[in-house]
């Protein structure tokens, strides 16, 4: 499998920094972020200070807030992730964790810098494009096919996916349309579909925050299995215990900058002091 530059889709050049174990070997790089900057452009942003007075006077004048404002969400982040690693992303609200995850998934182009990935990264919950008007049952099948499973594989894994999600524990919900699900149930089903396949690079955003303790335990167990199947897992969570139980390495972001990158216990200790 060729390395891909998620920005251009072109084959990536060999990385120029850090050790390079033989491609495909244990601990080979799966994601390289090289001085990544992500800038959102917000169109129609107000030019004032956002006070109630200026908002009211704009309303009275019936003028839309004009102009474009930039939000520099990720600032010069560099790291190398390797096969078999589970990496937690932590940081205060708005520090850029989800943005960085979406950039690794290839969903946001860096304003500058590059993200190189070995294999196809999957952002759990986004890659499974579920449809609200279809039943959970149909969504499991469609989601499985959309992830590249064959019909046969979907059939084999169907019951495991439903059991894993726990959707049917309190009645026959799987045969109801997804719009009847609570947001937690929908998130659990998305996680279960996504986790039914092995991923080269699996990206999870707060998935463990949904569901009860039993579901969280199943998720943590599944993440450990996915790691053993030689992939790389990234987990964004505000729950330090989930990070502690699941990850062996942590990246700590604040205001878009990578403050610390190291073993879970060291980074969490520094983060807990900071907070
Ligand atoms: N679609 C967007 N358009 C404009 N700005 C955005 C957008 N998404 C995020 N931002 C801004 O980018 C910055 C980083 O946001 P991001 O969601 O990546 O942070 P986060 O660390 O995941 O936050 P949280 O822990 O609250 O989920 C914030 O300042 C946020 O307001």
UniProtKB/TrEMBL annotation:
A Pfam family per the record: ABC_tran
Name recorded for this polypeptide: ABC transporter ATP-binding protein
Superkingdom of source: Bacteria
One GO molecular-function entry: ABC-type transporter activity
Matches recorded under InterPro entries: AAA+_ATPase, ABC_transporter-like_ATP-bd, ABC_transporter-like_CS, ABC_transpr_TagH-like, Bact_Polysacc_Export_ATP-bd, P-loop_NTPase
SMART domains reported in the protein's UniProt record: AAA
Keywords noted in UniProt: ATP-binding, Nucleotide-binding, Transport
Chain intervals for the UniProt region annotation (Disordered): 1-28
Gene Ontology CC terms, in alphabetical order: membrane
Family, per entry: Belongs to the ABC transporter superfamily.
UniProt KW Transcription regulation keyword: no
Residue intervals of the ABC transporter domain: 57-275
């Amino acid at each position: 499998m060729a390395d891909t530059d998620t920005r251009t889709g072109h084959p990536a050049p060999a990385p120029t920094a850090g050790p390079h174990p033989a491609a495909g070997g244990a601990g080979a790089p799966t994601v390289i972020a090289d001085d990544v900057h992500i800038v959102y452009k917000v169109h129609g942003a107000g030019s004032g200070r956002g006070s109630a007075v200026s908002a009211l006077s704009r309303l009275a004048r019936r003028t839309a807030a004009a102009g474009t404002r930039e939000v520099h969400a990720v600032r010069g982040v560099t790291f190398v992730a390797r096969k078999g690693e589970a990496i937690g992303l932590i940081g205060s609200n708005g520090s850029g964790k989800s943005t960085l995850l979406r950039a690794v998934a290839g969903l946001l182009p860096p304003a500058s810098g590059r993200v190189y990935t070995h294999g196809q990264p999957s952002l759990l919950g986004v890659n499974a494009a579920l449809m609200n008007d279809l039943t959970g049952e149909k969504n499991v099948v469609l989601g499985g096919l959309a992830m590249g499973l064959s019909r046969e594989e979907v059939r084999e894994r169907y019951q495991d996916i439903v059991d894993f999600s726990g959707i049917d524990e309190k009645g026959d919900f799987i045969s109801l349309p997804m719009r009847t699900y609570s947001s937690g149930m929908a998130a659990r089903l998305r996680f279960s579909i996504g986790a039914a396949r092995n991923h080269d690079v699996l990206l999870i955003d707060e998935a463990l925050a949904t569901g009860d303790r039993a579901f969280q335990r199943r998720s943590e167990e599944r993440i450990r299995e996915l790691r053993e199947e030689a992939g790389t897992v990234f987990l964004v969570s505000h729950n330090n215990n989930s990070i502690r139980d699941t990850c062996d390495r942590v990246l700590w972001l604040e205001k878009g900058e990578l403050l610390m990158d190291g073993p879970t216990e060291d980074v969490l200790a520094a983060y807990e002091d900071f907070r």
